Amino acid sequence: MGTLFDYLDWRGDLSFSEVPLNEVDNLIFTQLSYVAFDGIVSEQLNDKPITLRDAVRQYLKKHKGEVAYLGKIVPSAILSLAAKVAKCARYANVKMLAYTNHIDQKTQMQFSAVTFFPPKAPAYVAYRGTDDTLVGWKEDFNMSFLQPVPAQIEAVAYLERIAPYLTEQFFVGGHSKGGNLAVYAAVKCSPKLQERILLVYNNDGPGFDRAFIEGIDHQNLRGKIRTIVPESSVVGMLLEHEESYDVIKSHATGLMQHDGCSWEVLGGKFIYLDAITNESRLIDTTLRSWLDGLSMEEREKVVDSVYEVLVATNATTLTELTADKVKLVKAWGSLDPKIKSIILKCIAIFLKESKLGKKK
Questions:
Q1: What letter does residue 66 receive in the DSSP assignment?
Q2: pLDDT tens per residue, range 159-175
Q3: Which of 196, 193, 198, 248 lies closest to 27 in space, CA to CA?
């Protein structure tokens, strides 16, 4: 079966007027949100928007001669996808505006978003997932004991801020952490703004605590929230989710299925499966049990302890951290033995998932 790249060959010549924005377009927009359009797409709402074609061209020109790289965890294939998208008639004239990329060490926030305006079609507000920064990972782990985290608050503010510039009806979405932010922003924005939302796409993003899921705000919007996960999803199974989610096929294995570029497509739709794998379900149950065994205070202590040790290396990104193995070993050695034990148990769970994925 095909992937996002094949979809561009199949549908890349058709305008959004001919074929309305669909689930695959949704994923493509969320993948493009990982590209660092700093200094290319304006953050100012009153500025002139830039076409996707020109934005990608400027990015590629700016980074000409460099090895395609977006960090340790963001697939470099996204840059290849962006280059191909920019050449497709369907996307070339999509306008982009309100690109935001804020990293705040003090508040431990990693937030980025951008809005796409397809010609004569509903806009798409895309929230970026976790990037290469250590503070971004810290905020992700903070979700296990804190809600809302700063990025969730900022996600609501961003949606409210751009609302007057959006089409009457629009889409909201994101991949990974971006999916979580999209749901949170849609649930917590004003009722009038909620009425204009066509659909909220959560592409393999983590869930929330039970109080949020069972809250009246979430219940009222549940019909507009669509969660999509690959068959061996791990990230998308974390915390609590809506009762239903769509399972799709990926050509990758284990944790690598989180990569949206591995999701299988046929025409304008994903390839659907009946359920997540038994292995994924087992890992989900095990992780939940492991987290439930830790109090909120213990979770916070583990996350804070690890983060303090890592930033003490003066690294700000995963790339910098893993580039110096000596610092990494020293950081591990300085951790409290109890914290090490908890981390090792978590690592064992993920290693088990990786092995199970390879056996498929």
A1: S
A2: 999 999 999 999 999 99
A3: 248
